[in-house]
Amino acid sequence: TKAVDQEGRTAADAARYESVVEYLTTNRSRR
Q1: How far apart, in whole angstroms, are the C-alpha atoms of residue 11 and residue 3?
Q2: Residues 21, 6, 8, 2: what is their CA dihedral angle, to the nearest 10 degrees?
Q3: What CA–CA distance (Å, rounded) separates 6 from 1?
Q4: How many whole angstroms separate alpha carbon 3 and alpha carbon 1?
Q5: What whole-number distance in Å separates Cα of residue 11 and Cα of residue 26?
Q6: What φ, ψ does residue 18 adopt, rounded to 5°?
Q7: Rounded to two decimals, what is the model's pTM?
């Protein structure tokens, strides 16, 4: 169960990280 939970958390973390990166890039480009 721990391995599966960790994998799921990693996927969610990756998606959130990508979203944050995109947001920062857009914000920096707009400035």
Answers
A1: 12
A2: -170
A3: 9
A4: 6
A5: 23
A6: -60, -40
A7: 0.53
